[in-house]
Amino acid sequence: MTNRWALWLERNDTQDFALGRKSGWNAFVNAAPREQLERLDRTELERLGDEERALYDECRMVWNANLPTINTFQVLDAYDVLDQVMASSRRDGDRLRGTAVVDAPAGNGKTTIAAQFGRDFHRRVYARHGPLTEEGHQRLPVAFVPLAAGMTLKGLNMKILEFYGHPGARKASTSTLGALAVDCVLSCQTKLIIIDDLHFIDFKHRNGMDVSNHLKWLVNEMPATFVYTGVNLTEKRFFDEGLMGEQAAYAQTSRRATRCAVEAFRIDNEAGYRAWMALLRALEKHIVLADAREGMLTDNAREIFRRTQGNIASLTNLLDRACLRATRSGSETIDRDVIDRVKIDNAAEAGAARR
Length: 355
Prior knowledge:
Elements: H1 4-12, H2 22-30, H3 42-47, H4 50-64, H5 73-86, E1 99-104, H6 110-129, E2 142-146, H7 153-164, H8 174-187, E3 192-196, H9 206-221, E4 225-231, H10 252-256, E5 257-261, H11 270-284, H12 301-308, H13 312-329, H14 336-341, H15 346-353
Parallel strand pairs: 1-4, 1-5, 2-3, 3-4
Helix pairs in contact: 1-4, 4-13, 7-8, 12-13
């Protein structure tokens, strides 16, 4: 008889979504929520055989490492800005649409916000119009295009074509790649294009300026709304396109793009502290440990903040590793001792050392 934990793991194991390919993006969009994992108490844990316990612990690692996206004020504010920008998508094709820029320090959840927003939009379009266009093409309401270091104009077009699985992505000449990308967007009726990790482009370098100009051309040619994500894009002079002095006033991007900032949490004021506590309270309800309890995280709210500085990526690092330590040590809860023994990312460790 197959172990029930093996069955749960088979149905709910870690999923590797390659968002930069339409197959991976569709898998992400259509993925069902994980089945709730049962929380066993200590007595029930002790009744498990060695193999069962190992499988159950693996299930817990998968579950606890995939905390839900909580609708924090940062997420809700970002969605509000993105919804406003998407209002431009109702414009006729001869009119320019707006663009949004999710701009934040590293690890504040910008890619997660953009991907979740894109997923929700994709689902709404599918529900209304179905999976095929009137011409019989596959409908792809959203394209997700991750950039890489040293991105060039040709590389950008190739990335777009790779998302659609176009055979010309590696074969076409530089002069035709852009036209092929436009054709894919038109044929698949893509209405939202997410360009992830725009900070890889150096807008003061010639290649970066070429990419910036090409993005403006794509916005003009494609009847879609663009959402860019990147780290500290204002400081990297994305909005003024790397121009200096009076020339910066003529930068088109600054007029066309709407900045959507995503800030880390703060607890130096009452509203910020309440928001931090609400986040921890929501997350602790998700954690599956034998002795998990209400207040497990909120009782340690200030220490968790000191360790993570309110950064979402650092917080998730701390929590899934704390769950692992709690499981292996037998403590089966997250307390100050467990938190103190967790090693997380270097930036968070360095920040904690200064506090």
